[in-house]
Design a protein that fits this description.
With 313 residues, this protein is of the alpha/beta class. The chain has helices at residues 15-28, 43-48, 51-57, 64-69, 88-94, 113-119, 128-143, 164-172, 184-188, 190-211, 239-251, 287-302, and strands at 2-6, 32-37, 100-104, 153-157, 175-180, 221-227, 232-233, 236-237. It is 41% helix and 12% strand.
C-alpha cells in the first residue's frame, strides 16, 4: 500500500478535483484505491455522493468524524475499515478493468472535532506529549490494519491547514502531492508547507524513540507540484501563469514539478448528481480528458508504481 496526502495551505486550488479524478482514473487502470476525506468541507465526499444523496446513503456512524469520536487517550476504539463506503456508480465503471474505489467520507462537523479532542489532551492519565503522539500516529496504524490490506493506494484529501488531523495524514503518508493554481497566493505557501512538513517529520521521529522505540521512522517525500486551473493562450499557458510556474521552481529548486498541468474547465464545477468524477464522463477528444490521463501516468511514474497495461474506455 502506498499512501499519498494531497495538500496545499491555500484552499480553492483544485485539491479535491485532483484527488477524485486521479483516484477514479487509477481505479480504471486496475488499481484498488481508497480515498480518505479529511477536509470538513467534505468536497471529496460530495464528488461521489451528491449532498441530497449522501444523507441517505452514508450512515452517520460511517465517516472519519465518527472514527475520531471513538478516541480515548489518543487511541481509537473503532476500526477505520468500518467507516469505508463504496461509491456504486464509480465502481460500475471501473470494475471491468479490475479496479475498485473505497471512500472514507468526511463530515462538516469535523471542523469542531479538533478543538474538543485537544481540549481533553492530558486529562485522562496520559502524558500530553504521548497522547499527541498517539493522535498523530493513529491514522497510519489504522490504514495499515489487515482489514484494509486489499488496497494498493490511499489518497488523502487534506484540509488547507496544518492542524493535528492534517499532521496525522502526513505521518501516515509515503508521499505528498501539492496541487496549486499558478498565481501569487496559491504558490506563496508551498515553501512554508514543505518547511512545516520537514519540522513535523523531525519532531515525530524524535518522539518515536521516547514513546514507541523500535518503530520505523517516517520519511514522506514530495511527488511534486501539479498546476491546476491553468489558463491557456493558444498552446501555452498565459504569461502570468508561466511566471508563477517558473517562480515556484526557482523558490524550490529540488521540488519536482509535474509536466502535466490541468487547465481551467467549467466541468469541474458543474453539478454531479451521479457521483462520477469528470474523468469518467469526458470523451477522449476533450483536452481536459487528455490532461487528466497524462497526470495519472505522471503520478504512477513519479511515485514508483508500475503502470498496468489496462485499456481505458
Amino acid at each position: 500500500m502506498r499512501v499519498v496526502s494531497v495538500i496545499n495551505f491555500k484552499g480553492g486550488v483544485g485539491k479535491t478535483t485532483v484527488t477524485a479524478n486521479l483516484g477514479a482514473e487509477l481505479a480504471r487502470r486496475g488499481k484498488r484505491v481508497l480515498l480518505v476525506d479529511l477536509d470538513p468541507q467534505s468536497s471529496l465526499t460530495y464528488s461521489f455522493y451528491a449532498p441530497d444523496m449522501a444523507a441517505g446513503r452514508i450512515p452517520p456512524d460511517r465517516s472519519i468524524k465518527a472514527w475520531y469520536d471513538s478516541f480515548d487517550r489518543g487511541l481509537p476504539n473503532r476500526a477505520l475499515s468500518d467507516c469505508v463506503v463504496i461509491p456504486a456508480e464509480v465502481n460500475k465503471k471501473v470494475q471491468q478493468y479490475g479496479g475498485f474505489v473505497g471512500l472514507i467520507p468526511s463530515s462538516m462537523s469535523l471542523i469542531d472535532h479538533e478543538l474538543s479532542m485537544l481540549a481533553n489532551v492530558g486529562l485522562r492519565g496520559v502524558e500530553p506529549g504521548q497522547e499527541l503522539f498517539r493522535l498523530r500516529r493513529a491514522l497510519s496504524e489504522a490504514l495499515h490494519h489487515p482489514a484494509l490490506a486489499g488496497y494498493e493506494l490511499v489518497l488523502i484529501d487534506c484540509a488547507p491547514n496544518f492542524n493535528i488531523v492534517t499532521q496525522s495524514a502526513i505521518v501516515a503518508s509515503d508521499h505528498v502531492l501539492v496541487p496549486s493554481r499558478p498565481d501569487y497566493l496559491s504558490t506563496l505557501g508551498i515553501t512554508s508547507l514543505l518547511h512545516n512538513k520537514s519540522r513535523l517529520v523531525e519532531m515525530y521521529n524524535h518522539q518515536i524513540t521516547e514513546y514507541s522505540p523500535g518503530k520505523p521512522v517516517i520519511a514522506p517525500t514530495e511527488i511534486g507540484v501539479v498546476f491546476t486551473m491553468v489558463q491557456y493562450k493558444t498552446v501555452n499557458p498565459i504569461k502570468a501563469h508561466l511566471h508563477y510556474m517558473d517562480l515556484t521552481q526557482r523558490r524550490n529548486p529540488k521540488l519536482p514539478i509535474f509536466r502535466t498541468s490541468i487547465r481551467e474547465n467549467v466541468a469541474f464545477g458543474s453539478e454531479n448528481p451521479d457521483g462520477v468524477p469528470v474523468i469518467l464522463r469526458l470523451k477522449p477528444q476533450d483536452k481536459i480528458y487528455v490532461e487528466l490521463m497524462a497526470l495519472a501516468s505522471d503520478f504512477l511514474n513519479s511515485s514508483g508504481f508500475v503502470e498496468r497495461a489496462v485499456a481505458a474506455a
